[in-house]
Amino acid sequence: MNKRVARRGFLASGAAVGVGALVSACTSNEPAAAPSSAAPQAAAAGTDNDKPGTAVTIGFSAPAADHGWIAAIAKNAEAQAKQYSDVTFKPVEPTNDINQQISAVESLIQAKVSALVILPNDGEQLNQVARKAMDAGIPVINLDRVFPDKLSYRTWIGGDNYGMGVAAGHYIGKKLKDKGVANPVILEIQGIATLPLTQDRSKGFADALKTYGFSVTAQQDAKFTVESGTQVASNLLQAHKKIDAIWNHDDDQGIGVLAAIKEANRNEFFMVGGAGSANAMRDIQAGSGVLEATVTYSPTMASSAIKIARLIAQGKGLSDLVENQVPQSITLASETITKENAEKYLPLGFES
């Protein structure tokens, strides 16, 4: 990703709701409901985790913001940290260079931060430095791209990549089945093919399509960039004179995909996007093009990661859970956004 993707900035409202339903519900100061007679034990009353507590420093490292989704990740994290008077937010220079990110994380370890939130360029290649942080007693909150060694992170939080594929597959499969289409031409435009998250998305998509008796006709990766999106879509459009449906993994690269479709003057198919960008939602609302839906992979997970890092560093748990500690992994749901519900999700969208 060498060229910066044009973007108009992240919706300010996204930061306010960026904690997501999961964590905002878990920090309520409302008392727990009375247990039924069948309950084995009563849960402790909830506590207000947002009240100021022990002062903590949270280090943050992520790839360079040359992509709308990554830009929103960084902005969400910073905005969430600013909500707490007891948090010092210590980000390092974002980079797409593996060695530079390793060095940046090492500097945070040397600074003895209270907790680390890391979205690695590549989980496998940054696994060792994350383990170094954990061994030094610094809890690592692994965001999105997972470290293969569970000893390298205290908690992982991210989207449901397999679920994204399943959601897209069901939308496409059901629509084609309902239309009575036999042997449909279904194209898949991936992000970065070598990433486990991409492979999970593709597997979910294939598995869901299989339940309808369908399969992917052709698959190509577009590396999460607008330029590659345009090039890959152009190639696929030229290779397939008739298409029934396209699933594009990423709404940022989808700008390029849609540009290629418009240039080719093709509209015999429908398309499903991925991640849930604001511009994709607006296109879906307008209903004037081939994009009919997108499946969520919200960058609000970064807001939740900061919340979780703070709780772990302060020795707190999620107050709506009976357990005393934050869970080891949190997977956010992948939801399907269509014209009918786009207005509800638009405040969570990010600008590509």
Automatic annotation (TrEMBL):
Keywords in alphabetical order: Signal
Comp. bias (Low complexity): 30-45
Annotated coiled-coil segments of the chain: none
Database matches in SUPFAM superfamilies: Periplasmic binding protein-like I
Region listing for Disordered, in residue ranges: 30-50
Pfam family, one: Peripla_BP_4
Periplasmic binding protein domain location: 58-316
GO terms for MF: carbohydrate binding
A single Gene Ontology CC term: cell envelope
Signal peptide residue numbers: 1-21
Subcellular location: Cell envelope
Family listed: Belongs to the bacterial solute-binding protein 2 family.
Protein's name according to its UniProt entry: Sugar ABC transporter substrate-binding protein
The species this protein was found in: Sphaerisporangium rufum
